Amino acid sequence: MASRSTSRGAPPGGRLLDARFPWLGIEPWSRAAAAPAGPAPSAAFTDLGTHVLTPAEAAEAASYADVAGLVGEDARRRVRVEAVSVVVDLDAPPADAADVYLRLHLLSHRVVAPHGLNLDGVFGLLENVVWTTLGPCDVETFGAVRLDLLAAGVPVTVLGVDKFPRMVDYVIPSGVRIADADRVRLGAHLAEGTTVMHEGFVNFNAGTLGPSMVEGRISAGVVVGADSDLGGSASVMGSLSGGGTEVIRVGQRCLIGANAGIGISLGDDCIVEAGLYVTAGSPVTLVPDELVVKGRELSGRDGLLFRRNGVTGRIEAVPRDSAQWSGLNVALHAND
N or C: which end of the chain has fewer CB within 10 A? Predict the structure, then answer.
């Protein structure tokens, strides 16, 4: 389904505000075990692009996801809800906003891992939207829409003004806990056993690959390995926040302490001391060799403890025994 603004000034066909996909066209998320017997599907379900379905095509799709009761005009929000089919080439850049929304759904449904599809140009395709408890609204007309709602006695709360909605309003993956829904964007990839606490944040095309504790920030493009812990207010620099085009990865069984941060990748079994920020350009002293290198030269190395020397103030990297950190609390991440 796609929501389009019908307000005056919107482009011909309406301004697309969002799209949701109750059926993704693949198993196991398909409601149908197999395609129904009968004639070949119409071009709306096979040809690349976004297709507004005719009544006949919507009836054809009803065996997978019956959205007939959800389409039509919503005069309160000045929005038209349409039944659509979107067929994409995941290796090619998105063609339009509905295409982007399908890719974000695929990530949050864990069909595709971060960096497993092309997201070039997404910001230019998405509209800035007023996300409300009644659904998405057009930024340009929301002032008038809110007055109309107030006059009609219809309560409305603005959840945010952004190009990306909250993930939980579209997808709730199994086996995860999210303490604050505002902190996880649609397009986040949360593996089973992931816990995102109140101050945690996960951007789109980023997330976890196994059980993880997220109390800090996972920026766009960042991938966190299984059994890792991102401490309170910790930060991992992403491609949209100064990390450039390099993919920042956190290995398995890593601990990034409270208020710490990294602009380099961590291998497996690494620890970053609380309060320490290590970037690609940070001078790091290797202990016990006393060799000074840039942080980028240690990117992706396994088994390192990054710490700040309490006497000299220098950043040090020390080989560590994996037994020094007890790891995640297994019971805490059994999110059944």
Answer: C
